[in-house]
Amino acid sequence: MWPIFLIGGILSIVISLFVNNLILSALIGVLGFTLLWSIHEIIEQEKKSEKKDGFLKILIKSENIING
Questions:
Q1: Separation CA 17–CA 8 (nearest Å)
Q2: DSSP 8-state assignment for residue 68
Q3: Terminal-to-terminal C-alpha distance of the chain
Q4: d(CA 34, CA 9)
Q5: Domains of the chain, residue spans
Q6: Calpha distance 67→56 (Å, rounded)
Q7: What would the pLDDT profile of 15-51 be if each residue is shown by its tens digit?
Q8: pLDDT at residue number 49
Q9: What pLDDT was estimated at residue 1?
Q10: Helical H runs in the chain?
């Protein structure tokens, strides 16, 4: 999923360089940066999800051992 954000971010930043309107160019540039920053956030959420899943599996296994 993150490659979509990469392509969108790069395209937005490149397009912002060629837009003559200063405000529109800035907005498109901010959009590009936001899309690129989203890649970092997506990867962090995937890591958190993996840790949480691992913890839940351990918790379920320990509960099964206790309850028999």
A1: 14
A2: -
A3: 41
A4: 7
A5: 2-67
A6: 16
A7: 999 999 999 999 999 999 999 999 999 988 888 777 7
A8: 75
A9: 80
A10: 2-18, 22-67
Could you tell me the pTM of the whole model?
Answer: 0.69
User: What's the confidence (pLDDT) of residue 45?
Assistant: 85
* Residue matched to tokens 């351990």: 58
Q: Which amino acid is at 12?
A: S
Which whole-number Å values give the CA distances from 32 to 37, 54, 66, in the listed order? 9, 34, 52
* Residue 56, both tokens: 């839940």
- Would you give the DSSP letter of residue 1? -
CB count in 10 Å sphere of residue 25: 15
Amino acid identity, position 7: I
Residue of higher predicted confidence among 9 and 68 = 9
Is the distance from CB of 15 to CB of 28 less than 8 angstroms? yes
What's the token pair of residue 32?
């590009």
> Identity (one letter) of the amino acid at 37?
W
Q: Side chain identity at 48, as an amino acid letter? A: K
